[in-house]
């Protein structure tokens, strides 16, 4: 297609993150093929990770150029659950960054069509912050025929760019990552009167208190509950003299809340950001989030409260 600028003004020095929602096979081909061909002509590694139908269409159009792609992979082999998938994705990105000055990725997160995969929208939001300095163009493919309206709405809110017909343009619905996360976290309601509450000064005390609640609720998940709460208490005691730990059941969920009177979180996205390698990496919130089924944050300059939700 003449006049198409597949990556617009992207200069290869940082992240460009586009959400492309297509309704026909032709729309897909006309967007992705120029994107891949342009990258190959510039000597950039081009990676394609997509469902079977998308890969079949692209293979037909690209012909022998498929063999020049740095990756041409089935998307379903990537999904390991939100945190595990992002951890593997992060590892691959860092490895690629070590050998390539810039690259481009066309990826179809097929798991967004599944109930257990829709949390990926949160990681898409956080990517705009934690990968801002990585030099790649991420073209995220979303089939309007397969995805519910709520997922497509999240696509617009988590991608700074959309396709304008001949070049990428700013997406007007895009939101700051923290604002998006707050909108999709479980609603924050007052702690119920029946909750068990304790002010604790050591992680050991927290493990003992949370273990009792978890064993009474569902012993099979006691280890996960205790470990997740332990991580948050360690963080809380770094900024306050004590941590207030509470727990209660809400239907088939156990809720564990860890609160402190510290200065507030510097970044509410930390639970979704892969920790850096090495012993000094800040892993507490990441580990707690990965063990729980959901989480919510209430943070301000007078303190922070984090709730973890565990399902039976």
UniProtKB/TrEMBL annotation:
The lineage of its organism: Bacteria, Bacillati, Actinomycetota, Actinomycetes, Geodermatophilales. Gene3D superfamilies: Histidine kinase-like ATPase, C-terminal domain. NCBIfam families: RsbA_anti_sig. It holds the Pfam family HATPase_c_2. The keyword Transferase applies. Keywords: Kinase, Serine/threonine-protein kinase, Transferase. One of its GO terms (molecular function) is protein serine/threonine kinase activity. Signal peptide: none annotated. The keyword Transferase applies. It comes from Geodermatophilus obscurus (strain ATCC 25078 / DSM 43160 / JCM 3152 / CCUG 61914 / KCC A-0152 / KCTC 9177 / NBRC 13315 / NRRL B-3577 / G-20). This is Putative anti-sigma regulatory factor, serine/threonine protein kinase. InterPro entries: Anti-sigma-factor_SerPK, HATPase_C_sf, HATPase_dom, MEDS_domain, RsbA-like_anti_sig. Residues 17-160 form the MEDS domain. Residues 199-308 form the Histidine kinase/HSP90-like ATPase domain.
């Amino acid at each position: 297609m003449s006049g198409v600028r597949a990556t617009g003004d992207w200069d290869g020095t940082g992240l460009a993150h586009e959400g492309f929602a297509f309704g026909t096979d032709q729309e897909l081909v006309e967007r992705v093929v120029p994107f891949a061909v342009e990258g190959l002509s510039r000597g950039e590694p081009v990676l394609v990770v997509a469902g079977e139908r998308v890969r079949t269409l692209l293979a037909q159009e690209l012909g022998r150029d498929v063999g020049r792609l740095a990756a041409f992979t089935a998307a379903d082999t990537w999904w390991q659950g939100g945190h595990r998938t992002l951890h593997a994705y992060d590892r691959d990105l860092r490895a690629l960054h070590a050998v390539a000055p810039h690259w481009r990725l066309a990826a179809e997160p097929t798991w967004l069509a599944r109930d257990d995969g829709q949390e990926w929208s949160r990681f898409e939001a956080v990517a705009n912050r934690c990968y801002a300095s990585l030099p790649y163009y991420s073209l995220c493919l979303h089939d309007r025929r397969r995805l519910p309206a709520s997922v497509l709405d999240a696509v617009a809110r988590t991608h700074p760019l959309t396709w304008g017909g001949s070049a990428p343009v700013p997406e007007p619905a895009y939101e700051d990552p923290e604002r998006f996360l707050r909108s999709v976290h479980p609603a924050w309601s007052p702690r119920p009167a029946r909750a068990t509450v304790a002010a604790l000064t050591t992680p050991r005390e927290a493990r003992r208190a949370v273990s009792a609640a978890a064993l009474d609720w569902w012993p099979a998940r006691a280890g996960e509950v205790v470990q997740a709460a332990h991580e948050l208490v360690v963080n809380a005691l770094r900024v306050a003299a004590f941590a207030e730990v509470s727990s209660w059941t809400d239907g088939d969920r156990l809720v564990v809340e860890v609160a402190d009177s510290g200065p507030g979180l510097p970044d509410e996205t930390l639970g979704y950001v892969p920790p850096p390698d090495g012993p000094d990496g800040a892993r507490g919130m990441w580990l707690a989030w990965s063990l729980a089924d959901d989480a919510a944050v209430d943070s301000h300059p007078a303190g922070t409260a984090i709730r973890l939700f565990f399902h039976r």
